[in-house]
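Comment thread on ticket #2218

A.B. wrote:
> Attaching the input chain for the structure job we discussed in standup.
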Amino acid sequence: MAEDDLIAADAKNFLYFVKELSVNLPPDVRHVKPQPYYDSDTESSDSGVILNKEIGTTAETRRFECPTCNKYFKRRSSLSTHKLIHLNVKPFTCTVCSKDFLRRSDLKKHSLMHSGKKPHECPECKKVFSQSSNMLTHMRRHSGVRPFSCNICGNAFYRKVDVRRHQIRHQKNNTYVIGDEINEFSSEGCI
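C.D. wrote:
> Ran it. Output below, let me know if you need it in another format.
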């Protein structure tokens, strides 16, 4: 069997696998006709699925919950992709460095790194980037905007990943903030 045939077979098996993941929907989910537009009171669904228990609520509260980690998603398709994380499935592999990715779009972004193309230039310092998102994150350093803050101590960061790393330090130190004071406790329940 040729390599292209193997890749096509793997892609077909992966799509079948994802479809199987979403077949066993919980009883509080029903199919409805997808609506192409939504306003602040109603929300369309790409998949045409709306939670029964949440009909009549605002768009922000209509979410799909992962049964494994209780994380919420606005779209069923996002939940289906997320479920692959728990199964450690990364079906898209870089042909240059063999790194695996959960999403095809992530592989495509990664591939730009190998191409050497850097079409995005910072207007302040002329530094170039392969991805526009990296340039925008970089530009926050020029403007001083730190949109991600720690909900425990209030420290602000340029990137979401940095606030997550910072919060792990709080968990290790068992440090919590009460008003303006930073205190250490054995657990948050002791506060």
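A.B. wrote:
> Thanks. Noting for the ticket: Helices lie at 3-23, 76-86, 104-115, 132-143, 160-173.
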